[in-house]
Q: What sequence folds into this?
């Protein structure tokens, strides 16, 4: 990634190609990742280990569509980004085809001329009264 703004598309491309090597390459070796269910892992190996089984099974026919919200520079070599992510699960998912929206916060830092993710956290949009997942266009976000 040549700039922080590249992260949403790069993450989307790795996910949609179900390419765990490309997914891992987006992260610093000691990066942290919190999935939408609150599962925390540290390190590229653990991030890939978290994603590989689901990409081989329930998310094998899934796609992501990401949309950058903002980029906040912390310094010349660090930035925080937020982006929307719509996961569309296919027939391989036990719940069948459906969509889920999440909001992703990521911290990126630059090393050796390239940007990588140092920390990423993913939050599922839900109805605060019922806990049911909602799509962002259904809640007016």
A:
């Amino acid at each position: 990634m040549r700039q922080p703004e590249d992260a949403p598309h790069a993450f989307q491309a790795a996910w949609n190609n179900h390419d765990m090597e490309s997914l891992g390459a987006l992260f610093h070796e000691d990066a942290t990742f919190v999935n939408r269910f609150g599962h925390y892992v540290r390190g590229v190996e653990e991030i890939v280990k978290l994603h590989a089984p689901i990409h081989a099974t329930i998310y094998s026919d899934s796609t992501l569509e990401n949309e950058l919200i903002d980029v906040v520079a912390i310094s010349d070599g660090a930035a925080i980004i937020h982006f929307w992510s719509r996961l569309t699960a296919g027939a391989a998912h036990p719940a069948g085809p459906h969509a889920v929206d999440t909001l992703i916060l990521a911290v990126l830092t630059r090393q050796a001329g390239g940007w990588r993710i140092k920390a990423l956290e993913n939050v599922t949009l839900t109805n605060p009264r019922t806990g049911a997942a909602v799509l962002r266009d259904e809640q007016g976000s």
About this structure: The chain has one domain: 4-139.
